[in-house]
């Protein structure tokens, strides 16, 4: 290899001479450099072992660190004033300055990725360009210590299983998939994953209860003759820290391959419906060493649902297209966040579907189904609705009552609710309502022969979908203001009321049926429990 200049004296003369004397081809040097650039210490170590360069491991590492530092200073600090070039601060002083501004992690990440512009932007944002030279020198020092000769082993997290028992979910995660066509594979996390969305995990609060939550983790160690190391992890959000424990290794892989880790500090039993992006900072230390070293940082998206999802969602068979979808959980857990009961969760879902978040409007022209079939056995186009929520076209903006009932039932039942989509009818003449997507009182189908009437109406229903069961209706708001105890809506002073967990009808009170249809139509507005269904999703 050709000699390299070291104008900033980051590497001493001894290391320079050793590097230049090593019989190392350009190809092999580039292999090591690629592992270094990716921060892949395990790959770096494996290549060192392959080339029989163990005694020069630290020298090569320091050399690569110095090259990066030299190049980074050339581009990141080229506009720094001359007076700033002479600043000298020790490593701990620099770290204190950066920690006070909470940018140490950000700067070292940009440094390792060699993103000079992003690095400069951070410095300018915090008025630190005058400290460019000493900051980069300090980052070089931190990085060059990353493979310190005092460290006798390097441990890495290879993979994490959350759903390690597909037949049970009392100690582990539920069987889920991403959407109709994409599975969530186990292990849910592998090292190449960098964002929480890559590692979705769902837990049932009632099924976990006071049980221990268990994950299974695969570790790797270099050099491969290491027999033991200690590991722990900080963070974890609702799952809590991983307590220090000893891991055994055989030929560089943990033994058993997946180590069972009990998360005794988890808070799932006290949780509500939620979606939480968590991260663990994994750490290790070699046996008989005092210092802990950082290794991988794993990020995960944790969903908590109240109980095991209900049909159309299934836990078995697995994998299956009707396993709960993480794309549905993204919305359901967000909409019902913080709810602790099934009724509260279903009410929150119904409210969000009716409000602009649902991005829907009642089909006042024909009343046709757009996202669900109107015939027995038809399915709910959940994929199209999700596309609509994400800003895509979906199946368009129009919905009818069957569509709304399917959305409410499907998005509530994934949280553990037990709603049916069921009809009432037939030939219903309506009081004034506010249809989904509208803000004004009126009646549907203006200018047609069907003005002011539904041939039938479909809603989300509890229990057996009978007269004395509670209902949820996202399709419309009724007038909740009773006229002088007459069991009829006040035609003058109208109060919009979204039907949330209210009785379909008690013959002695002002309930959903009285609010929805005219007195003359009540006799025709009857539950039709034989129509109740939970539409399969696609």
Give short descriptive properties of this protein:
Immunoglobulin-like; elongated; 3 domains; 28% helix; nine-stranded mixed beta sheet; 538 residues; alpha+beta
Task: Itemize the secondary structure elements and their pairings.
Elements: H1 13-21, H2 26-38, H3 41-50, H4 57-76, H5 82-85, H6 91-100, H7 104-113, H8 116-125, H9 132-144, E1 154-161, E2 189-190, E3 200-204, H10 205-208, E4 213-222, E5 228-235, E6 242-250, E7 253-263, E8 274-286, E9 293-305, H11 326-335, H12 342-354, E10 361-362, H13 382-389, E11 398-399, H14 401-413, E12 420-429, E13 434-435, E14 453-461, E15 470-472, E16 476-479, E17 496-497, E18 500-503, H15 512-516, E19 526-533
Parallel strand pairs: 3-9, 10-11
Antiparallel strand pairs: 1-2, 1-4, 4-7, 5-6, 5-8, 6-7, 8-9, 12-14, 12-19, 13-16, 14-15, 15-18, 16-17
Helix pairs in contact: 1-4, 2-3, 4-9, 6-9, 7-8, 12-14
Description of the structure:
It is a single chain. By secondary structure, this protein is α+β, with helices and mostly antiparallel strands. The chain is 28% helix and 23% strand. The protein contains 15 helices and 19 strands. The chain has helices at 13-21, 26-38, 41-50, 57-76, 82-85, 91-100, 104-113, 116-125, 132-144, 205-208, 326-335, 342-354, 382-389, 401-413, 512-516, and strands at residues 154-161, 189-190, 200-204, 213-222, 228-235, 242-250, 253-263, 274-286, 293-305, 361-362, 398-399, 420-429, 434-435, 453-461, 470-472, 476-479, 496-497, 500-503, 526-533. The strands form four sheets. Strands 2-1-4-7-6-5-8-9-3 form a nine-stranded mixed beta sheet. Strands 18-15-14-12-19 form a five-stranded antiparallel beta sheet. The longest helix is centred in the N-terminal third of the chain and has 20 residues, at 57-76.
